[in-house]
Design brief:
Chain lengths: 594, 779
């Protein structure tokens, strides 16, 4: 059986040491968030994840969801777990106090979210979209809507969903058909079909607040004619109590490869009452608030599954006896040596570890910028933070989920045949991790978002929020020999990233296919370089702490940093060469020959 | 042909005085006369006040303040005899036939024989103006209809009568074209002539339809402007500009003058709203406000718009229209087929206006091209009505008219296109007589001395091109380098083509002209490309961009053939620097040239500092010595001075005294080509210069000046930083007066200063602000 132990030691390192230079504590509102509080919150979430969620992970996967008479039944135990999750105040962890939230920083949320995804992704999905819907309503809805809906969502009594996809319209939202007809009272009536709606129907919460994209009459064609509507499962009376059932129904749930405990619903809107959120025809812009939040969440799913997969693979490699070390028996009194003696197994484990710890640092860096964006008194710094989050969102989504899947896959490899069979629970991680590369904008779309939108925006202003700090970091440490083992490889990778960025910007002026062909490799080059910067900084901190290192934690950090720099970062060289080869080999190939 | 060496303008109102100014700009002495007001102490008061106003008006009617001296103010009582000296007398007095007639009789008694008289009337027919006048006068008389402001509006409508002397006409056409720089359109003697005939119909219909359909002024001006290539003032912004008080004069006037079957009669009512606004003083920009106004509230300027329903002002908003979104998806057709009221408005106003143009064209003009040119140059439309019809498709227009139940003019039933390229030449429909006769396709005629790149493109393919620039063979061994990047900015592709031009001309041609037909010659280096490099901290590449520009311009300078720059409009930053490296410049009179790099927090890095120093040291008219020329360049460049005309550009040393000025935009390429050919007769590239610069002691002097500006609050903190870097380059860095510096030494100094500045966050903020808002940031 698989196990999960929340990586609290590493999380404390990330929050208290790695993020120290961000000075989160200086921002308004942070005086109520002392370090001990953060530690306590993380410990509490660790308990929830380890004791409540993880035990339901396998059973939820075995049982799946059921649709009966239009109602979805989640796997046994989910309802009770959700109740306990609510009672713990988790839904409102970072929400504003005026709506009943606890006002904790997003950085803390990022860490707790990883634990939830690691311990039970199917369960986590029900809760994550509520977080996104809350942010969406907070930024775009009227005071009236906010006052009516947000407190219940913050309390977790009501959950949120995101309804974009339709049978004919996936990535291309311009094809969307759901109609919204205005009513004399200012509300709308929506008719249409939505598919692939996570948590579109379930038995966990009292009401479901569906955020639906639809087209009003007279709307211009394409994505410029899409509006956003709030469509509750149960209509809400002005006093906040629940009214009659709205005409939005679950007609089917999908049978999937993974995340079987999460209901993936087909919804039918049959003249359902809806409320316009934000401006008419500007729904997509508003929805991006939720989509961006969801993309970061999905990135964290890759991290979470990578972490739990690594933990199990490492434990298995230490106990499973198989073969002898190449240099002679390490365990002569036993019939065989543990797997861990084999270089290739060690390569796999270190790869997994370097990924997960690197991702954790990156995710916390993004979380800290989210907090700066929300809280910092200096508008210039808020802007920079916002730029950074916008830039890193597609990287976190795609790079993390690719690495998450790769990590789960490596774990299966370490287990061998025992990973492929169901008994150890490893194959579930692989299945569950796979979806994260697809939903919330397939990873190829993330790469296009990075090169097509984020790179050229404001003549590269978003890039400045990343490139200038890294360049400064390198300039300040030029010639420091003790750090050269991390700064030199970082400088090389960073130089490649700079040149690839300029190359794509210049080439794509004349031919957009150049950007499209380079996009995926570029996103990985970006991800690896960002991770290298995080590893360099972690290594620097670890070096300072090493003399008082009693547990070996900092030594392991340094060693993992070295592994990353020597065995993983060189991939940037291959990516760089591939990018610079241009689009020819991809675009010249004749369509008929495929 | 008769010579026009002296002019007189009678009537020193806005139009009269500005026409006089344009004559003065052309180098012609001009007498400006007006009445003697009752009880005036100074009998020339009216004309003198007009001259004072000329100097305060923005944009300035005078191309150079010294041109003012060519205008002699006077009055029609004491100075009538002086009219005897004028070869051309322009009447620009109030639109009252009896006053004009009296004036004509008076001046006819003194004017010299063979002189030409013209009226600048916009409403009165020539037949009425010449009624009962002696034959001699009728033979010397024309209407010359200028557009406001005359320096900047390129249209001159000319109406001649059956008795007008052909040589008088030819003299005015030639003078108006070459000297005043106008594009001449012959109009028949019909009400409103050409541009206003169509323009007034369009404005009036646009006003009434917006009221009928319940649009806001912003909605109306958003949909009837950019989508049709019409200036962003649209209908209501333009009404504000020309003055609402003109509406109750012009509209009934046209109503009275037009033939009974004219479609204008159906829309000739003046709306109550307009009457009320005028009565309350809301006559537009010159009054308390119009359909828009700027409300100055405690130092803050808030743009407000009039609510057409309530007649009250509210804060103006920029509408985001579904119809505009539909246009972005489906082009002009997408907009015209869209189903909201703004699209209905566009359909109604534009379809009826274009139909009106088709209806009246045979009556008012010789050919369609004249009508299109009149609307382009008189109303600043990007496309004339018939070019618009070609874009929309005449069958689509017919369908729209039929759907609205409006009659379809015969011209729109014409078989075949309105314009066509035959044998590489543009042909357009022409009417052999006035009205009724069947139009035929005829080559569009360009006067001798007019060479348009647009025509070259119709008949040939580029020698080479990339997305940002092209090379064209413009005949007689001359190659034209054309920019076509966004705002004609310099990006790596443009620089690449500069090198290519040098290779091609060196081996196969005689000379190179750098010219294009966009509104502006070049806005300088592509700031977006530069800022991108800065944003990703790719410093070696940024420095390389500076170096590449320096090398490209140096290649032009030392090429073994003459290079002539032929700019019009703005030539800023790098656009100015490339011209500084040319052997000669033939400039359009409207040239706004300057080294504006300081505005974005850097210094000229493509040899601009070096070239300006060369010119200042070579200019024998200004003080010499080691420091004076340096200080002169510093004064110009540190505050990003831009010339307001080609004449001013000479003062600022951006142009050499020997550089030519062409008044008529259409003649620029021809003149530049002539210049290039003349230079190619015995051309030798220049010798590399040697500089002796003052070094740190000179810099200290400039630093003192900067400190002074800083203390006076005239320079911001970052202004001082940028000026300091400029001072360092101009004084030669770490040098002294005895040490010779090469061109490359100076280029290296430019690069160093540029790279130091471009890494600073204040400079980055300036560049970003300029890109986002188009305005400089003073930080």
């Amino acid at each position: 059986m698989a196990t999960y132990k929340a990586p609290l030691r590493d999380m404390r390192f990330i929050y208290h040491e790695f993020l120290a230079d961000q000075h989160l504590e200086d921002m308004p509102g942070m005086e109520d968030v002392p370090p001990e509080l953060v530690d306590a919150v993380l410990e509490e979430m660790a308990k929830v994840a380890e004791n409540i969620l993880f035990p339901l992970n396998r059973s939820g996967d075995e049982e799946g969801c059921r649709l009966e008479n239009g109602e979805v039944h989640t796997p046994r135990g989910f309802k009770d777990a959700y109740q306990r999750y609510r009672e713990g105040g988790w839904p409102g962890l970072t929400s504003r106090p005026e709506y009943g939230g606890q006002g904790l920083p997003e950085t803390v949320y990022v860490l707790t979210s990883e634990m939830m995804s690691a311990s039970n992704l199917s369960f986590a999905i029900y809760t994550k979209l509520t977080h996104g819907a809350y942010q969406l309503l907070l930024k775009t809805a009227s005071e009236e809507i906010k006052n009516l809906y947000l407190p219940n969502m913050v309390e977790g009594r009501w959950t949120g969903t995101m309804c974009l996809t339709e049978p004919q319209c996936g990535t291309d939202l311009g094809l969307l058909r759901t109609k919204a007809v205005p009513q004399p009272d200012g509300t709308y009536r929506l008719t249409g079909n939505k598919i692939f709606i996570s948590g579109g129907e379930q038995d966990l919460s009292e009401n479901i607040i569906q955020m639906v994209l639809a087209r009003a009459p007279d709307a211009p064609p394409g994505v410029k004619g899409i509006s956003l509507f709030l469509v509750p499962k149960f209509l809400v009376n002005p006093d906040g109590s629940l009214g009659p059932r709205n005409r939005i129904f679950c007609t089917a749930i999908e049978h999937k490869m993974g995340i079987k405990g999460s209901s993936t619903c087909s919804l039918s809107l049959e003249d359902a009452a809806g409320y316009l959120i934000g401006d008419l025809h500007k729904g997509l812009r508003a929805m991006f608030v939720m989509m961006n939040s969801a993309r970061l969440e999905v990135g964290l799913q890759g991290l979470g599954l990578g972490e739990v997969a690594y933990q199990n693979a490492a434990a298995y490699a230490k106990e499973r006896l198989q073969g002898r070390a190449l240099t002679g028996p390490k365990n002569p009194d036993k019939p065989a040596d543990p797997l861990i003696v084999h270089p290739d197994v060690r390569r796999m484990l270190l790869t997994m570890r370097a990924y997960t710890e690197g991702m954790r640092a990156m995710s916390a860096w993004v979380g800290a910028q989210l907090d700066k964006e929300n809280r910092h008194p200096d508008p210039g710094i808020r802007q920079q933070a916002e730029d950074f989050v916008a830039l890193l969102t597609p990287v976190v989504k795609a790079f993390f989920t690719d690495l998450g899947f790769e990590t789960a896959n490596l774990a299966m490899q370490v287990y061998g045949g025992h990973g492929y069979i169901r008994e150890h629970g490893i194959e579930q991680f692989v299945r569950d991790a796979r979806i994260a590369q697809i939903y919330e904008g397939a990873n190829g779309i993330q790469a296009l978002d990075l090169v097509g939108r984020k790179l050229p925006a404001h003549a590269g202003r978003y890039l400045r929020s990343f490139f200038h700090p890294v360049q400064r970091y390198l300039d300040e440490r030029a010639g420091q020999a003790q750090l050269a083992f991390v700064t030199e490889p970082l400088a090389k990778a960073f130089g490649r990233l700079q040149r690839a960025t300029a190359f794509i910007a210049e080439r794509s002026l004349a031919d957009p296919n150049e950007a499209g062909a380079a996009a995926y490799d570029y996103l990985h080059l970006f991800g690896l370089t960002t991770m290298a910067y995080c590893w360099a900084r972690m290594a620097e901190i670890a070096q300072e702490k090493i003399k008082d290192d009693t547990t070996g934690f900092y030594q392991a950090k340094l060693d993992t940093a070295r592994f990353f720099m020597e065995r993983i970062l060189p991939r940037t060289s291959g990516l760089f060469s591939a990018i610079l080869s241009g689009s020819g080999s991809i675009m010249d190939f004749k369509d008929e020959a495929f | 042909m008769m010579k026009i060496e002296k002019m007189a303008v009678i009537g020193a109102g806005v139009m009269g005085s500005a026409i006089a100014a344009q004559a003065a700009n052309a180098g012609v002495p001009v007498l400006l006369l007006d009445i003697v007001p009752e009880g005036a102490t100074d009998r020339n008061m009216v004309a003198k006040n007009a001259l004072k106003k000329l100097q305060e008006t923005d944009p300035p009617p005078l191309m150079h303040r010294k041109n003012l001296a060519r205008i002699t103010p006077g009055n029609i009582e004491d100075d009538l005899e002086k009219l005897a000296e004028a070869d051309w007398i322009i009447e620009a007095v109030i639109e009252k036939p009896d006053i004009k007639h009296r004036l004509y009789r008076n001046l006819d008694s003194v004017r010299k024989s063979g002189s030409v008289v013209s009226s600048n009337t916009s409403t009165l027919p020539l037949a009425e103006l010449t009624r009962d006048m002696p034959e001699n006068f009728r033979r010397d008389f024309l209407i010359t209809h200028f557009f406001n402001p005359p320096r900047y509006m390129r249209l001159l409508e000319i109406v001649y009568g059956p008795e007008t002397r052909p040589d008088a006409l030819a003299a005015l056409v030639d003078f108006g074209d070459r000297r005043l720089g106008k594009s001449i359109v012959h109009s028949n003697d019909t009400p409103g002539f050409i541009a206003n005939r169509i323009g007034i119909f369009w404005l009036q219909l646009g006003l009434l339809e917006a009221l009928r359909l319940g649009l806001t002024v912003e909605e109306a001006d958003t949909v009837i402007s950019r989508p049709f290539g019409i200036p962003k003032t649209g209908i209501f912004g333009l009404l504000d500009l020309v003055g609402l008080d003109l509406v109750p004069h012009i509209v009934p006037g046209m109503d009275r003058a037009l033939p009974p079957n004219d479609p204008f009669h159906a829309i000739s009512q003046v709306p109550d709203l307009v009457t009320r606004m005028i009565a309350e003083g809301y006559t537009g920009r010159k009054g308390k406000g119009g359909f828009y106004r700027l409300n100055r509230n405690r130092g803050e300027r808030i743009k407000e718009a009039l609510d057409l329903q309530t007649g009250a002002y509210r804060v103006s908003t920029k509408p985001e229209l579904a119809s505009i979104a539909a246009m972005k998806a489906g082009g002009l057709a997408g907009l015209l087929q869209f189903h909201d009221k703004t699209a209905e408005y566009a359909r109604s106003v534009m379809a009826q206006t274009l139909a009106y143009a088709a209806e009246v064209a045979p009556h008012v003009a010789d050919d369609l091209e004249s009508v299109d040119r009149a609307m382009r140059l008189g109303y600043n439309w990007q496309y004339g009505p018939f070019e618009l019809i070609d874009r929309i498709g005449d069958e689509n227009l017919v369908r729209m008219l039929e759907a609205m139940g409006k009659p379809v003019p015969d011209l729109l039933r014409h078989d075949g296109p309105l314009y066509q390229v035959v044998d590489g030449r543009l042909h357009g429909l022409a009417f052999t007589g006035t009205g009724g006769t069947k139009p035929t396709l005829r080559a569009v005629n360009r006067p001798p001395g007019v060479l348009l790149l647009a025509d070259v493109k119709r008949r040939s393919k580029p020698l080479t091109k990339n997305p940002s620039a092209s090379l064209w063979d413009v005949g007689d061994g001359v190659v034209c380098l054309e920019f076509q990047s966004k705002m004609n900015t310099f990006d790596p592709l443009v620089l690449k083509l500069v090198h290519k031009a040098v290779d091609i001309v060196r081996s196969d041609y005689r000379a190179l002209v750098i010219y294009n037909e966009a509104d502006n010659f070049s806005a300088g280096a592509n700031l977006g490309v530069l800022l991108f490099g800065v944003n990703i901290a790719l410093w070696p590449e940024v420095e390389n961009m500076v170096k590449q520009g320096q090398e490209a311009f140096k290649a032009l300078e030392y090429a073994p053939f003459p290079v002539v720059g032929a700019p019009s409009g703005m030539a800023l930053g790098g656009g100015c620097e490339i011209l500084l490296h040319c052997d000669a410049v033939q400039a359009h009179a409207e040239l706004y040239m300057g080294l504006v790099e300081a505005g974005v927090g850097v210094i000229p890095g493509w040899g601009g500092c070096k070239e300006m120093l060369l010119r200042a040291f070579a200019d024998k008219k200004s003080p010499q010595g080691p420091m004076a020329p340096v200080a002169r360049v510093f004064e110009t460049v540190s505050v990003a001075t831009v010339s307001k005309s080609a004449q001013e550009a000479k003062d600022l040393l951006f142009l050499r005294p020997t550089d030519g000025i062409t008044m008529n935009r259409d003649r620029l390429l021809f003149d530049a080509k002539e210049k290039a050919l003349a230079l190619s007769e015995s051309y030798a590239p220049p010798e590399p210069p040697v500089f002796y610069l003052p070094g740190p002691s000179g810099k200290a002097a400039l630093d003192m000046a900067i400190g002074q500006y800083r203390r006076l609050g005239k320079a911001t903190a970052h202004d001082a930083v940028v000026a300091g870097a400029l001072a360092d380059v101009l004084t030669g860095g770490d040098t002294d007066i005895s040490k010779p510096l090469s061109e490359d030494d100076l280029l290296a100094l430019e690069r160093r200063a540029f790279m130091d500045l471009v890494k600073r966050k204040e400079t980055i903020a300036r560049m970003e602000h300029m890109l986002e808002t188009g305005k400089p940031l003073r930080n």
